[in-house]
Amino acid sequence: MVDHNPTAESAELTDGFHLLIDALKLNDINTIYGVPGIPITDLGRMMQEEGMRVLSFRHEQNAGNAAAIAGFLTKKPGVCLTVSAPGFLNGLTALAHATTNCWPMILISGSSEREIVDLMQGDYEEMDQLAIAKPLCKAAYRVLHAEDIGIAVARAIRAAVSGRPGGVYLDIPGALLGQVMDVVEGAKSLVKVIDPAPAQIPSPASVDRALEVIKGAQKPLIILGKGAAYAQADEVVKDFVEKSGIPYLPMSMAKGLLPDTHPQSAGAARSLVLKESDVVIMVGARLNWLLSHGKGRQWGEPHSTKFVQIDIEPREMDSNVEIAAPVVGDIESSLAALSQAMGDDWAGPPSEWTDMVREKRETNVAKMAPTLQNNASPMNYAGALGAIKRVIDQKPDTMFVNEGANTLDFARSMVDMHRPRKRLDVGTWGVMGIGMGTAIAAAVETGLPVLAVEGDSAFGFSGMEIETICRYKLPVCVVVFNNNGIYRGTDQNRSGGEDPAPTVFVEDARYDQMMAAFGGEGVYADNPDALQRAVMDALESGKPTLINAVIDPKAGKESGNIGSLNPTSGAVSRNNAEALEIIKQKAAQ
Ligand code: ADP
Ligand code: TZD
Ligand code: MG
């Protein structure tokens, strides 16, 4: 069927380039995030020629982060396209990030000549990419023949979105793109993926068991995770929460699934509900480090909590603690079944509990309110975030991107989200560098204005993509919370030498001037009023904007809210004579 050395003037031909494009388009994948180069330069051009949107980045990791969040936002795999070895490795970090977060993504990388790579003869950008990708993603495939492109793309899509979503690697040796075959046979080889993520109905017994456990609770709590946001079953989630009457806690990227101002929200009573609750219903959330693995002091142990867990991945159950009622199924089917099983006479939790949570929430919200009005200059986090919060309250459809340490942790608790999937952040790993890729994909995939609130360190990881934002004229407003460094801008070199401490940056840097270099708007803001006005203007104009927000370098905490995870040096001896002598002798060898 395939003629790898066609002489045929007779037959009409297609090639690997076009088969790959046709296979993606057939499956409704029309946006590509990538960086061009050998062997995929022409592929990008042809994709654009064939009507796909091709967004060309300055670094593959940012393109990959864009693809990853596109997967979260759309439930379709976001596609990142890279060159071989170094470009592939740059993209691979994002593919691993997508997999860790359970988001569908496909990394398509060109690769070098198979015969040369496999004999390790030193090809241009030689690397056995398939082998390297495999342990870092959900599935990895290589295509060697043009007639297999259709099935390979279909497998990649299904692997990415079915069950627990994740990242898939697709290895495209450069030679494949040039392979030709009969155009009609080529069309026949394409595969449209039917029902790529089939509904997974939970077993009725698991639903009944879950309901029994919930019924027995005195102090129940629902935890909504980003899996629930991903599921796009917003009405079903809302119905379940409201019908149950149970207080809920949204994980970071589940904020807004129900508005943070919802009467059942326990967001501002987090410590209380984790400690006090006796039954916790996990909905698309994992008991990983972000929830102290479901045990310990934060959970009020020794009084142990019972867990109901709704997840599409069976192996998530009992991953950290015993799950009393595992419900394996998709969020929509599972919550619909639970709501139905509750019946019409569901009493809801005891009012002592819901009152206790409400009072705590109201107290904490009232305590925070005046801090959000702090008008000091330079700003502290609450003052600056008060300005941001007021903008989001007025413009709840804004896509909100957030990374940093203090910048992230304070924003998570201070800026309310009102709509689903509007808060995009560092995810499960706490990755610095997701910012600009995420902002770009948010703008491209939703068409909505984007506000990215970035620590100055966090911003630096992907900052060059502001050129990409300007080039594609995207409605993105970046606010750099500039405190001259990582956590704080005040650290001193402990050796007394001239180098700055490892956590501090150039003092009073003007990030706004970077934006001006590419034709965007650069704004300097050193007080909350100016910041609020500048953000409003930017979101209304839709012009690429970067606001340098001057934050007091003394305002932040080490590692933000998770300082306890950062090992610090305790009582050590640096002057032990015997130890010093041993090191001296070793150095002399
Ligand atoms: P968070 O960080 O918000 O707690 P996680 O990323 O840890 O959220 O957990 C998301 C969970 O959601 C994963 O265990 C994943 O398997 C699950 N999940 C993803 N999509 C669905 C779905 N459609 N239905 C059920 N569970 C899902
Ligand atoms: N590298 C990567 C890829 N991810 C990380 N999380 C880190 C390094 C370590 N890190 C954090 O966890 S937060 C942070 C780093 C470098 C930057 C914090 O500084 P910031 O925010 O300026 O972004 P604040 O407001 O100054 O705290
Ligand atoms: Mg900083």
Brief sketch in words of this structure:
The chain is an alpha/beta fold.
Task: Kindly describe this structure.
This protein is α/β, with parallel strands linked by helices. 40% of the residues lie in helices and 16% in strands. The protein folds into three domains: 8-188, Thiamin diphosphate (ThDP)-binding fold, Pyr/PP domains (Rossmann fold, 3-Layer(aba) Sandwich), CATH 3.40.50.970; 204-359, Rossmann fold, CATH 3.40.50; 373-557, Thiamin diphosphate (ThDP)-binding fold, Pyr/PP domains (Rossmann fold, 3-Layer(aba) Sandwich), CATH 3.40.50. The protein has 23 helices and 19 strands. Strands 3-2-4-5-7-6 form a six-stranded parallel β-sheet, sandwiched between helices. A six-stranded parallel β-sheet has the order 15-14-16-17-19-18, sandwiched between helices. Helix 2 (41-49) links the parallel strand 2 and strand 3 (53-56). Helix 3 (60-74) packs across helix 18 (435-446), helix 12 (234-244) runs parallel beside helix 14 and helix 16 packs parallel to helix 22. It is globular and about 80 Å long. Bound molecules: adenosine-5'-diphosphate, ligand TZD and magnesium ion. Adenosine-5'-diphosphate (ADP) is lined by residues 101-102, 164, 225-227, 230-231, 251, 253-254, 284-286, 288, 290, 311-313, 316, 330-331, 428.
